[in-house]
Specification:
The chain contains ten helices and 13 strands. By secondary structure, the protein is of the alpha/beta class. The structure holds oxa(dethia)-CoA. The site of oxa(dethia)-CoA (UT7) has 19 residues, from helix 2, helix 6 and helix 7. Pathway: Lipid metabolism; fatty acid biosynthesis.
Length: 334
């Protein structure tokens, strides 16, 4: 027998306020046409001033707990992927823990920007497989609007706020059972940190700072690095693109997604895309797209998912997951 982390439930939350491209034109020298053509984005959600990353994270977590029909008390580990924590310290995950009353084990944040959710899944999966707990709550949550420079039209139109969550539960599986998180693949190249960064922080400037990006360079690396990590994860599992039910790519730019799926020969019908409605929500991008597709019935138990994301660092990664609960090994009522 081997240990596997199965993905038993998902949840998400978007702030109520929707800002369309047209509305942005009142603040920034841009156009709906430019934003749609260059990115695929039509609108984004922005948190109000009193709505913090932890609030979004807690709401997404509650949705996942409701779906799983489990009590927060069974959670042993909370990992929050975020670039926009409520405070410099302690971790946003500590607020999530307190609000949910999930005091069994540890709660901490992970910072890998837009790749944060994949990193958080990898960490939680490895904790569970190592026997350090049986249930993990993994959240990607951002109030990325706080980092935007409204004088920089090349970045401020691209991002939005939101949160998504998944619950992982460890099972003893037969080595041939291909359920749950099958593999994760993480990469970082610190030499590329200057093409996407925030120009502030408690140590460097004592301020929060704003997003700075060389869009063309990031675009180029996003296409090549995501294509290569998708290849790597397929190969590691002896799979071909045909075996995948859904590719869940980071929702940064429709043109990046199109370039990758053209290269990889993955049909558009197998790709979850939510960028038009959410824009780029950084660490929340993958779990938001996943939760929507689970709730509207596109993603079903037994489907094979390939998640991939890239962001500042550069940090990128992918994960292969067979979604849902294998009926023979565990059920919600246990
Ligand atoms: O999650 C992290 C990962 N981030 C990404 O993956 C983002 C990757 N990069 C991109 O998505 C694209 O590079 C952008 C969407 C950021 C930019 O698209 P682009 O096709 O690379 O445009 P560009 O930067 O080459 O700019 C083309 C033109 C420029 O005008 P000129 O010099 O040709 O006259 C820009 O000044 O578009 C202009 N422009 C805009 N015009 C209207 C740039 N931003 C805007 C804007 N509205 N918001």
């Amino acid at each position: 027998m081997i240990k596997r982390s199965i993905m038993i439930a998902t949840g998400s939350y978007l702030p109520e306020r929707v800002v369309t491209n047209e509305e942005l034109c009142a603040w920034v020298n841009t156009s709906d046409n430019w934003i749609r053509q260059r990115t695929g984005i039509r609108q984004r959600h922005f948190a109000d001033d009193k709505e913090l990353t932890s609030h979004l994270a807690i709401k997404a977590a509650r949705h996942a707990l409701e779906m799983a029909k489990i009590d927060a008390k069974v959670i042993d580990l909370i990992v929050v992927a975020t670039t926009t924590p409520d405070d410099t310290f302690p971790a946003t995950a500590t607020k999530v823990q307190k609000e949910l009353g999930a005091f069994n084990g540890a709660a901490f944040d992970i910072q890998a920007v837009c790749a944060g959710f994949i990193y958080a899944i990898a960490v939680a999966d490895n904790f569970l497989k190592a026997g350090q707990g049986s249930t993990a709550l993994v959240i990607g949550a951002e109030t990325f609007s706080r980092l935007l420079d409204w004088k920089d039209r090349t970045t401020c139109v691209l991002f939005g706020d939101g949160a998504g969550a998944v619950l992982l539960r460890v099972i003893d599986a037969n080595s041939k059972d291909s359920w749950g998180v099958l593999s994760t693949h993480l990469h970082t190249d610190g030499c590329k940190r200057d093409i996407l960064y925030v120009d502030g922080g408690p140590s460097a400037t004592k301020t929060v700072g704003h997003v700075r990006m060389n869009g063309k360079e990031v675009f180029r690396h996003a296409v090549s690095k995501l294509s290569s990590v998708i290849d790597e994860s397929l190969e590691a599992n002896g799979l071909s693109p045909n075996d995948i039910d859904w590719l869940i790519p980071h929702q940064a730019n429709q043109r990046i997604i199109d370039s990758i799926i053209n290269r990889m020969k993955i049909p558009t019908e197998k790709v979850l895309v939510s960028i038009a409605r959410h824009a780029n929500t950084s660490a929340a991008s993958l779990p938001l797209a996943l939760d929507e597709a689970v709730r509207d019935g596109r993603v079903c138990a037994g489907h094979l998912l390939l998640l991939s994301a890239i962001g500042g660092g550069l940090a990128w990664g992918a994960g292969v997951v067979r979604f849902g609960i294998p009926v023979h090994s565990w059920c919600y009522s246990k």
